[in-house]
Specification:
- The structure holds 2 protein chains of 2 kinds.
- Chain A is an alpha+beta fold.
- In chain A, 36% of the residues lie in helices and 17% in strands.
- Chain A has a 5-stranded mixed beta sheet, with helices on both faces.
- The longest helix of chain A is centred in the C-terminal third of the chain and has 20 residues, at 140-159.
- In chain B, helix 2 (33-40) links the parallel strand 2 (26-29) and strand 3 (48-51).
- Helices cover 36% and strands 25% of the residues of chain B.
- In chain B, the strands form 4 sheets. Chain B has a 5-stranded antiparallel beta sheet with strand order 4-5-10-6-7.
- Chain B has 3 domains: 5-51, 2-Layer Sandwich (Uridine Diphospho-n-acetylenolpyruvylglucosamine Reductase, domain 2), CATH 3.30.43.10; 61-171, 2-Layer Sandwich (Uridine Diphospho-n-acetylenolpyruvylglucosamine Reductase, domain 3), CATH 3.30.465; 177-284, Enolase-like, domain 1, CATH 3.30.390.50.
- Chain B contains 12 helices and 14 strands.
- Classes of the chains: A alpha+beta, B alpha+beta.
- The interface between A and B is medium-sized, with 29 and 28 residues.
């Protein structure tokens, strides 16, 4: 049964008329047309579909769009500002944080979520937080190095008042 | 997923009205991490889904003289990070930190997890070891159910028609007790435990066991309290020999299902090993001077 769902996605308001069973993942990809968010395991385990819902990291593949009616959603398309890549995105490029790229949007969203709550994580804290984001190319050390470098860059920028 | 109608009531009265109206055709949804997957796999095919996100006042953590009252809609991450829980119920904070991944803990709630009745979940053994209860609310009022009695069978709980779980009452651990939650994870860090054990132990001044509770998860169709093992240790000196003898009785209490995490025999053996370690570690965690 269709119903009205209002979502603010990356700062843009959307009013959608969609079935109650529509998953947030499918809503973002097919109703709104933002295909950066990926589907992989479909059961909330792998992290490829991670998005921020009112600032909290969610698995969009097991979230009903209707259940988050009225929320602000941030996807991978919404994190660069004025054409400048987010420091986490830049660090993934500079430090080999991805290979095939399928898991990367989820990895970047998870890393941003981590650094938002813990701006200076230890290696162990990065591993603990990121263990729910799988990379089947197994490039985990590149991801780890990228996040550590992004944290350092962001802390330097914050320290210099930029 | 078959289609359904989604309802977003804003009060408990509205929830009870919808439950009256739709009965068995309706499912209540809290965080949705379990229910959405069950619907995707067509294990559950409700015509009506009643989401609780807009019902206010169900996500508070409050201090009471006996312990903490945790609202049913508190997310696992909220509980894990709560200063109140960390200070007053460190076993609970530690247990919730061991559930799945941060992303799932952001979504899944304490109440939703309990009424889902999955015997592999982490919170029930620790909450039962602490003597926690669920407050079931219906139009007729509240009914308090010890969590030990909530779980009836595989994915089957004592929730009655017209009732919803609104909060969980968790008493403080007894003064001078030590507690631990062990999760045996031979595969990946985000997995369900192969065997899990919560233990709470307190001792008399002469070093004998004053009280002990040992509760296991993932080794049967419900969480299992190992009462024979507890009885064998209560009142006895906390020696290696007595702890080993008590842990051996855990094997008779469990009845694991065989799955890709191990055979029933293997899990039974590990239940004994991890029960022994849990009791040892709970004793080691008893504050000095108690």
């Amino acid at each position: 049964m269709n119903q009205k769902v209002r979502l603010k996605v990356n700062g843009t308001d959307h009013e959608l008329d969609i079935p109650a069973r529509r998953l947030l993942l499918d809503c973002i990809r097919y109703d709104i047309g933002l295909t950066g968010t990926k589907e992989s395991c479909s059961v909330g385990v792998c992290g490829a579909c991670a998005v921020l819902v009112d600032g909290e990291m969610y698995a969009s593949c097991i979230t009903l769009a209707a259940a988050v009616d009225g929320s602000e959603i941030t996807t991978i398309e919404g994190i660069a500002e004025n054409g400048n890549l987010h420091p986490v995105q830049q660090a993934f490029i500079d430090h080999g944080g991805f290979q095939c790229g399928i898991c990367t949007p989820g990895q970047v969203i998870a890393a941003i979520s981590l650094l938002e709550e813990n701006p200076d994580p230890t290696e162990d804290e990065i591993k603990q937080y990121m263990m729910g984001n799988l990379c089947r190319c197994t490039g985990y050390y590149g991801i780890l190095n990228s996040i550590a470098a992004a944290a350092e860059d962001m802390n330097k920028a914050a320290g210099s008042g930029e | 997923m078959i289609d359904f109608e989604y309802h977003a009531p804003t009060s408990l009265d509205q929830v009870f009205g919808l439950l009256d109206q739709f009965g068995d055709d309706a499912r209540i949804m809290a965080g949705g991490t379990a229910l959405v997957i069950q619907m995707k796999q067509r294990l559950s095919q409700p015509s009506h889904v009643i989401g609780l996100r807009r019902v206010g006042d169900l996500d508070a953590i409050e201090s009471t003289p006996e312990g903490l009252r945790i609202g049913a809609l508190c997310t696992q991450r909220q509980i894990e990070k709560s200063r109140l829980v960390g200070e007053e119920l460190p076993l609970v904070a530690d247990t919730f930190r061991k559930v799945a991944t941060p992303r799932i803990r952001n979504m899944a709630t304490i109440g939703g997890g309990l009424v889902n009745g999955d015997p592999n979940q982490d919170p029930p053994p620790a909450l039962i070891a602490l003597g926690a209860s669920a407050v079931m609310t219906s139009k007729g009022g509240d009914r308090v159910v010890p969590l030990e009695d909530l779980f009836i069978d595989y994915y089957e709980t004592d929730v009655q028609p017209g009732e919803i779980l609104t909060s969980v009452l968790v008493p403080h651990a007894p003064a001078g007790s030590g507690s631990v939650y062990l999760k045996f994870l031979p595969r990946t860090a985000d997995d369900y435990g192969t065997v899990t054990v919560a233990a709470v132990v307190s001792k008399e001044q002469d070093g004998t066991c004053k009280d002990v509770r040992i509760v296991l998860g993932s080794v049967g169709v419900t969480p299992i309290r190992a009462k024979q093992a507890e009885d064998a240790l209560r009142g006895k000196p906390l020696t290696d020999e007595n702890i080993r003898a008590a842990a051996a009785l855990v094997k008779d209490a469990v009845d694991p299902l065989e799955d890709f995490r191990g055979s029933a025999e293997y899990k039974t053996d590990m239940a004994e090993v991890f029960a022994r370690r849990a009791v040892e570690q709970a004793i080691a965690a008893i504050p000095v001077g108690s």
